[in-house]
């Protein structure tokens, strides 16, 4: 029998709580739900009003993994949805606005991916993202070198950058922006990637060409396109262990000397939140957003 729980007045069926989703650690679906419940205070503000794409892995990362953009069948009527412009027509996507919606979505076993705009202003970017993806034998250590250069470059344009782990092998740089379309932000991000490659030709790369990537950090600027999404802050990832896309301090970035220094699982987040709070909270303040040059 599927247990029913009540969250802020909403009844939610939670299934297979004892199912092991991360065999390397024995981390269960019940622990996934517990993680999202405890991270909700910092996670929800970064999801709210942003149509969410789900990367689902109901049988764990070693099972079937699939991407869902449209509202899933069986979505409760109280879950907020919104029409979103697509290349061909429109689609309807979920907006995770509150704790009941978060727990319902977490029960689907999912990574949360969001656009760089809110549903009320589709295609008008309020965030810039640069995804630093290392090609082996490069690691997050090399990503940190590139991130520090990009931080200074953005600061020169009056834009403050923040960092988080990708929850995989790389690093994400985020910045609040205003007054620009997704296309304009994408063009600016590409310019930054090109400049990074020119400044650090042995380390940074702005092209996706796989033959060029070994030992370098690909500065992926393309996720600023209006149709693209990026793993949200604090989301769990479909990896061997319950890695989290975790915000990090610039001191941690500067002092990173080994890949495991910037690798955090669900169990690491509670103490980090006690020590740092939400390191990405400034992104939620429009007054701290920068203007593109």
UniProtKB/TrEMBL annotation:
Q: EC number(s) for this protein?
A: 6.5.1.1
Keyword Transcription listed? The answer is no
Q: Which Gene3D superfamilies match?
A: DNA primase, PRIM domain
Q: Keywords on this record?
A: Ligase
| Domain DNA ligase D polymerase residues, every copy | 28-279
Any single GO molecular-function term of the entry would be: DNA ligase (ATP) activity
Q: Enumerate the CDD domains for this protein.
A: MtLigD_Pol_like
Is the Ligase keyword given for this protein?
yes
This protein's source sits in the domain of life called: Bacteria
Record's PANTHER family?
BIFUNCTIONAL NON-HOMOLOGOUS END JOINING PROTEIN LIGD (PTHR42705)
Name of the molecule in the record: Non-homologous end-joining DNA ligase
Q: What organism is the protein native to?
A: Streptomyces actuosus
């Amino acid at each position: 029998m599927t247990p029913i729980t009540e969250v802020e007045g909403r009844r939610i069926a939670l299934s297979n709580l004892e199912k092991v989703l991360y065999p390397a650690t024995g981390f269960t679906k019940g622990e996934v739900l517990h993680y999202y419940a405890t991270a909700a205070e910092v996670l929800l503000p970064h999801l709210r009003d942003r149509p969410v794409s789900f990367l689902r892995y109901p049988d764990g990362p070693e099972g079937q993994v699939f991407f869902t953009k449209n509202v899933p069948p069986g979505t409760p009527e109280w879950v907020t949805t919104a029409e979103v412009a697509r290349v061909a027509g429109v689609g309807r996507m979920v907006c995770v606005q509150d704790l009941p919606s978060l727990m319902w979505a977490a029960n689907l076993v999912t990574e949360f991916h969001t656009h760089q705009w809110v549903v009320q202003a589709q295609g008008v970017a309020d965030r810039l993202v640069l995804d630093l993806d290392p090609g082996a034998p490069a690691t997050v250590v090399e990503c940190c070198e590139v991130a520090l250069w990009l931080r200074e470059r953005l600061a020169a344009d009056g834009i403050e950058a923040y960092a988080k782990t990708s929850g995989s092998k790389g690093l994400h740089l985020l910045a609040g922006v205003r007054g620009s379309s997704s296309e304009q932000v994408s063009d600016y991000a590409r310019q930054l990637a090109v400049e990074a490659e020119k400044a650090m030709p042995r380390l940074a790369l702005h092209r996706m060409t796989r033959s060029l990537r070994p030992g370098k950090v690909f500065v992926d600027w393309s996720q600023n396109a209006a149709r693209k999404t990026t793993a949200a802050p604090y989301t769990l990832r479909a990896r061997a262990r319950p890695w989290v896309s975790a915000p990090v301090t610039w001191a941690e970035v500067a002092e990173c000397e080994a890949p495991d220094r910037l690798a955090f699982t669900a169990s690491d987040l509670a103490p980090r939140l006690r020590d740092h709070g939400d390191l990405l909270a400034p992104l939620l303040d429009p007054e701290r957003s920068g203007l593109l040059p």
